[in-house]
Amino acid sequence: MPQIATYKQLLLGSLLLCLSLTALAQQTPPTRCGVATGFPPYQFSLNGETTGFDADVARLIFKRLSLPFQFRQQAWDLVFNELRFGDIEVIAGMEVNALRAKFFEFTQPYYHRYDVIFILEDNQQITKLEDLHNEFVSGDRHSYIETHWKELGTLYDFRIIGTQSKEKSMQMLKEGRIQAAIMPKAVGFYLARQMGIKVKILDNPDPGSPVAFAVKRGNQALLTQIDTALGILIAEGEIQRLYEKWFPEQEVNFGHKQH
After folding, report:
1. What Rg value do the Cα atoms of the chain yield, rounded?
2. CA dist., res. 150 & res. 175, Å (int)
3. Cα separations (Å) of 131 from 101, 128, 135, 138, 183?
4. φ, ψ for residue 211 (rounded to 5)?
5. What backbone torsions phi and psi does residue 69 show, to the nearest 5 degrees?
6. Chain-centroid distance, C-alpha 16
7. What DSSP assignment string belongs to 151-196?
8. Does the keyword Cell membrane apply (predicted)?
9. How far apart (Å, rounded) are the C-alpha atoms in residues 115 and 203?
10. pLDDT tens, residue by residue, 55-73
11. What are phi and psi of 84, to 5 degrees?
12. pLDDT digits (tens, 9 = 90+) for 100-132
């Protein structure tokens, strides 16, 4: 009889614990995770659903943490400022640099991105960077390339214009409204395939930017949770398998440069 009583007590205790955890999860507000629109294959919307490599990594992390979350998806500048001013808690897939480190803290990186300059493959007039002087180029003011040009003092040799999205930039390149477009390598080739055009890289000076999850400075608890889960997923090979799904032609090597 004592053994039966002990078993019933354990069963009751387990049931109460499950009910408590369920109630706690229901009471916990979802973590708001910012992602950008128009940044395929990393972050974009397909048939109304948030998708892309970074979005899938976020899903893996919050599933591992058993934390409720919701995506907040909109233009990059809005996502950036929402985290800066505390309207969301985290951003997935942010490139790490010194300027952003003033406002945010970052997890370990889980891949690198490379910014390049794309032109149409059949463009015979543009063969070197100097040929773009005084030509229209769609810019990316957060990119390594524009920062590099500022440091060199050559930024104003180009007629830089901003667009609402990378899709818009690639569409303008397709239509001949610009001569070149600055964007991450994987994004440019993805969009070109989607639009049925052929592009080539004119210049690729970027040594690669590490990409991580970002939280507002001071939110150490959430940063530690996400970073721990991310580290486990990397060690288990889950992030690499996901990377191979989205980028089957490329390799990923954590802690080193990747595309």
Report:
1. 22
2. 28
3. 35, 6, 8, 15, 19
4. -120, 135
5. -150, 165
6. 40
7. HHT-GGGSEEE--S-HHHHHHHHHHTS-SEEEEEHHHHHHHHHHHT
8. no
9. 9
10. 999 999 999 999 999 999 9
11. -60, -40
12. 999 999 999 999 999 999 999 999 999 999 999
